[in-house]
Each structure stands twice: as C-alpha cells, then as structure tokens.
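hey m, so remember when u said the tokens were messed up on ur end? i reran from scratch. heres the input so u can diff it against urs
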Amino acid sequence: MTPLMSTYDAAEGTAADARSAAVSWTDAEVVARIQDLEESMRATMFEQLQLIAEAEHRGLPADRGARSMPAWLQGLLNIDYRDAKGRVTVARSVEDRTTLYGEPVSTDLPATAAAMSEGAIGLEHARVIVTGIKKLPEHARGTMLAEVDSMLAGWARQMPPRELAIVAERLRYLLDQDGAYRDEEVQHEARELHYATARDGMMVVKARLDRETGAKFAALVEPLAAPRPEADGAKDPRTAGQRNADALAAILDLAASSDAMPRAGGQRPQLAITVDFDDLKRALDRAD
C-alpha cells in the first residue's frame, strides 16, 4: 500500500469513526462540533494563505514555469482560476510577514487577518473585504484603511458574505459620493430592455436595469413571488422562475387597472375573442 493510499484510508477511517461516534451525541454536541469544524477549516485556510504569500515571495511559480501566481496555484490545487486568483489576492492583504532581519511587518488588513486566524470569518468574507477596500477612493484607502478594515471585519463576524458585500458597497458610496454618482450615470446610460415574441407565441424579455430601477423591480416582485401558503401540507409546486413570472403578471394587472396608466387610443387594454355562434349556443345549452 502506498503512503498516499494509507493516508487516504486513514482519513476515511477517521471520518467513519466520527460518524459512528456522533450517533450517541446530544443535539447540542452535534451543533457544537459542526461549528468547531467550520472554525478549524477557516483557520486552516488562513494558514494556507500565509504559505501562498510565502511561495510568491520565493518566486516558486516562476521557478516552475508558471505564467502567474494564480495559474500556478490553480494547477497545484486543481481549483478554478477565479478561486485561485481570489486566494492570492487575499493572501497578499492578510499575510503576516517579517523583513530579512526578522522584524515584523504589519499586515495590510490586521483586523481581517485576526478574524480569519480565529476562524471567525472565511475566505469569502475576506475576499469581499479586500474587493470593497480596493473600490474605495484613494484618499479613503490612504487615511481610513485601518478604520474601514476594522468595521468590515467586525460586520463580517455577524453576517454572511453576500450581506457583507452590500454593506461594503454602501460604505463606498458614503466615502466616494462623486464616484457613486458617476457609477449611476454609467448604469443609466447602459440600461436596456428588449422583448420579442418567440415562435411558440411566448414573449421573451431581456433587460439590464440601473441600480435604482432594479431595486424598484425587486421590491415589487419579491413579495408577489413568495411561495403560496401550504394547503393540506402540499407545498407551492411552482419553480422560482414560475413564481417570478406570475409576480410580473400580477404587477402588469395592477398597472393596467390603474387610472394613472396612459391608454392606447384612450382605451384600457382589451382582448377580443371570436367564437362561432352555433358553438356558443351549444355550450350555453349544455350549461343549462
């Protein structure tokens, strides 16, 4: 048996032993172990980031013929390039390094580094923080870096990465109102909506909305697209896409019934249905 297979078998055995032991644990012990493992994995990731930074300082990718640090890491770990690039970017910001004379060099983002080393936040949190800080205006990065790092790292301990990204974006708007205004202008110019009727008669809609319009759209669609309350234990059978489509239909009905809506030719939208008289008469006779 090769050393690699021995290691794999040992890991498999450890996992199997853990599953067997967990059967006798209390609910609180299971929950606590899940949390402990997450903290451990996050702390291990932080250690890997330190080694990634060290590998870059040593020039290991160039020595091995790699075109870039992310490309080298992608091949080494068999991960997506985006993931590799993200790890390299974060590693550069949270590395704990020393000079050739052994003197410590402060990390760029000490609060983020501390939270990662404790296992309180994960790689995705750190990536959001690094990206958010890079988007700040130069004056804010120069004079408020430590404060922003501390704020975002503190929020990261309390919320998932997606919500943290929203907070980071709002912070950027507060610190760079001129830049935010330029972004809004660019988005407004890039707005578009196209619609066409497909061969089967269904309408295909494609749109790119500026931030404000997108927020209005989401605010109207989300409550109307919520799953219907369960009836007799049966869940709403509609997919998320179908619920969104139904929500849009409801919005159109509400708009069409509003007196504030302009009318084509001064009339509300109308649908004309043509029915053969004899067919209609037979249907009415059957109804009686």
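this time it looks ok to me. The two ends are 84 Å apart (CA to CA). if urs says something different then somethings off w ur setup not the seq
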